[in-house]
Design goal:
EC number: 1.5.5.2
CATH architecture: Alpha-Beta Barrel
Oligomer: single chain
Order of helices and strands: HHHHEHEHEHEHEHEHEHEHH
Distance between the termini: 27 Å
InterPro entries: FAD-linked_oxidoreductase-like, PRODH_bac_arc, Proline_DH_dom, Proline_oxidase
CATH topology: TIM Barrel
Strand content: 5-15%
Number of strands: 8
Keywords: FAD, Flavoprotein, Nucleotide-binding, Oxidoreductase, Proline metabolism
Protein name: proline dehydrogenase
Pfam family, one: Pro_dh
Helix content: 40-55%
Number of domains: 1
């Protein structure tokens, strides 16, 4: 990433984590609707109905779907229970809507991790059992590096009981090479992302060729072990390298992209016969999610500004 883009990405990540800015935007009658126009490119909307509706549309076109009710770092037990109940309602409504093979993604801090890891585990088990009864799966997202041990511990406990729960690994963390080796002993699908959180150099690689190399090394290891893996990236260099190595044709592999980012590319892969998945989100806590999407690719800021002026452009579907 160029120096200017790198600085912009770091600034966006800092802004995303500033509670004062978030509160100011959420309470502003002028800023909130303006930024929501830009957010609509990356989220399905603020309600469960929005998420289900878009999921049905994309499933009808041949995509697999991952659905998430956005949120993390929930600050009270009451709110953790409310979040868990929303995920339960999402699983049930997706089933009632005749959606099949759905993955429900979540942050453990959304359902209790920051309050009580035991609560997060209990909620995860409840959600995983409900998902299993519908032939759905649960994918645990990864968060800041200081939470990694707790997240992996909960995943390992749950994965021993349920094969329909998976885990996300951030390639930029130096520890991930060792983590992957240990996770091969568990049945759940492993989703590989580059990593959206700002981490110090002693813990993580920056966006670079070195990071791309590590990303491919992790994917290679999983494919050689025939372990279920989700390649979650929009990076054309990685996509082309995976194609060159004939990884995209492996039965254990799926290609996952976020809703609103490179829809033409994921459509092209689907049309070529690659197993493709679109990651859909909904909810009012879209601020942090959108900041991360802009930070991953700072030129998206220009698109966001255009969407604020002409919001209809964000609603056009290229899938």
């Amino acid at each position: 990433m160029r120096t200017e883009e790198g600085k912009a990405a770091n600034a966006l990540k800092s802004i995303a984590r500033d509670p004062r800015i978030k509160t100011y935007i959420q309470q502003s009658p002028d800023l909130y609707p303006l930024l929501y126009r830009a957010a609509k490119r990356f989220i399905t909307g603020e309600t469960r109905k929005d998420g289900i509706s878009k999921a049905k549309e994309l499933v009808s076109k041949g995509y697999s779907i991952s659905l998430e009710y956005i949120g993390e770092n929930t600050k009270s037990v009451k709110e953790c229970i409310e979040s868990k109940n929303e995920f339960l309602a999402l699983i049930k409504e997706a089933n009632y809507s005749d959606l099949t093979g759905v993955t429900v993604s979540l942050d453990l801090s959304h359902i209790g991790l920051t309050e009580d890891p035991g609560l997060a585990y209990d909620h995860l088990v409840e959600l995983t059992e409900e998902a299993q009864s519908k032939d759905f799966s649960i994918m645990i997202s990864m968060e800041e590096s200081e939470k990694t041990d707790a997240i992996l511990d909960i995943y390992k406990r749950a994965s021993k009981r349920y094969s329909n729960v998976g885990i996300t690994i951030q390639a930029h963390l130096h520890r991930s090479t060792d983590d992957i080796q240990e996770l091969l002993d568990y049945p759940g699908k492993i989703r590989i992302v580059k990593g959206a959180y700002q981490e110090p150099s002693e813990k993580a690689l920056p966006r670079s060729e070195a990071l791309n190399k590590r990303y491919m090394e992790l994917i290679d290891r999983l494919v050689k072990a025939e372990h279920p893996v989700s390649i979650a990236t929009h990076d054309e260099a990685i996509i082309q390298e995976a194609r060159r190595r004939e990884i995209l044709d492996a039965r254990c592999v799926e290609m996952e992209m976020l809703y609103g980012i490179r829809p033409d590319r994921v459509k092209g892969l689907k049309d070529e016969g690659v197993n493709t998945k679109v990651y859909l989100t909904y909810g009012v806590e879209w601020y942090l999610y959108v900041c991360h999407r802009l930070a991953e690719y700072p030129p998206n800021i220009y698109t966001a500004i255009a969407d604020m002026v002409e919001p209809d452009g964000a609603d056009k579907s290229y899938y």
